[in-house]
Amino acid sequence: MKTVKTAAEMRGIVREAKRDGKSIALVPTMGYFHEGHLSLIREARKKCDVLIVSIFVNPTQFDPSEDYERYPRDLNRDEVIAERGKVDFIFAPDVSEMYSSGYSTFVEVEGLSKVMCGKNRPAHFRGVTTVVAKLFNLIEPDTAYFGQKDAQQVVIIKKMVSDLNMGVEIHVCPTVREKDGLAMSSRNAYLNEEERKAATVLYRALLKAKDEIIRGDKLLKFIRKEITEMIESEKLARIDYITIVDPENLQEIAGIDKPVLIAIAVWIGKTRLIDNIIVNL
Ligand code: AMP
Prior knowledge:
Blueprint: E1 2-4, H1 7-19, E2 24-29, H2 35-46, E3 50-55, H3 75-84, E4 89-91, H4 95-98, H5 117-120, H6 124-139, E5 143-147, H7 151-163, E6 169-173, H8 193-198, H9 201-215, H10 220-232, E7 237-245, E8 260-268, E9 271-279
Helix pairs in contact: 6-7, 9-10
Bound molecules: adenosine monophosphate.
């Protein structure tokens, strides 16, 4: 495995692989690996000749008040984990390599980027689509792997790929959880012991909503109210949003005649966590 720091070297490697007729898979990440990242790496490894994992804490997807500086980083540790996952190349550019001074080109999926997480994080998805578009342009992967944990991101990336005729096949991998149900996330490292216990309320609420939907005797608005109360009863938790939408287009829905995505964002102390579940009757 090799760690590549420059776009020029990365492009050279990709060109050579393509000349040899090799298929390329990309797993875009911000690093500080956990089992969720590894599940994407393992899945990607099964189906490609060359596996590239990018590690880049992307400044344009953080709003000014957010945790860009504090975001956990440990390239040495990630390299050990990636080696175990049989990754061929880590692409870990510096910020100046991705955004030269005077950088001014952005990719934005309108509409979808302004709902749910986009309401309180107005620049977030523009940053995500910009950096993913740049990685797709540079690496030209045949396939790219994303986690269902970031459900809105998946919908937005698929829309960008379709709208901009990017020839990249998008694979979505299930959310990997801790034993008590908490979705794995690099940001879980921010939680102290008490907050870590409180954080289980996200998945407990999602499971309750799922059970209620399957039982089928309550309207969605009552289910939403119940899980709101459940999360609010946890004193360290503060709800950002709870939404029940169509998983294909993130439109709010009132009835349950097709699969539904229940997505939530909750502050636990100073840490904002997201989680979601799809219910398919
Ligand atoms: P991040 O480094 O947090 O930007 O995540 C990189 C990729 O890993 C994204 O596609 C995430 O959706 C995915 N991912 C993060 N956490 C998990 C998880 N718990 N289970 C599955 N995929 C995940």
